[in-house]
Each structure stands twice: as C-alpha cells, then as structure tokens.
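Reviewer 2 asked us to include a model.

Predict the structure of this chain.
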Amino acid sequence: NYIMWYLFIGTIFTFLVDVINNWLSSNAHRIDYIPPTDEDWGMVERIVSIILWPFAMYVFIAAFYKRNKK
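Predicted model (structure tokens):
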C-alpha cells in the first residue's frame, strides 16, 4: 500500500513538472526562459523522476528558486 502511494505521488509530481515545463516553453518568448529539448526530458527521465521523486522535487525547487532570484 505504501509503495502504491509513493508511486502515485511520484506520478503526480512528474505530471506537474511536465505541465509547468510545457507552460514555460509556450511562454518562453515573454519570459527569459530557454526551453529544454525533447532529449532533456524523455520517458526514461520521467520514470526515474517517479521513482526518485523526493530528490527530484528538491532539485526542481532549488533550481526554481535559483532561477527566480536572478
């Protein structure tokens, strides 16, 4: 049961990262943002993000704040 919840939270987190990335990519011309290529965020990276979501969340939040402080 815990494993299912762990994977469910990882899936939701990865989905949110995808949604935010798509929004940023579509609004890159309005903000100072260089969108990643398709090779940067593929299926393998999504699966790893689902499995290692606590670490991936830390990296995402740290990069988000670092980017917004500039």
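The chain has a mean pLDDT of 83. The chain has three helices and no strands. We have added this to the supplementary material.
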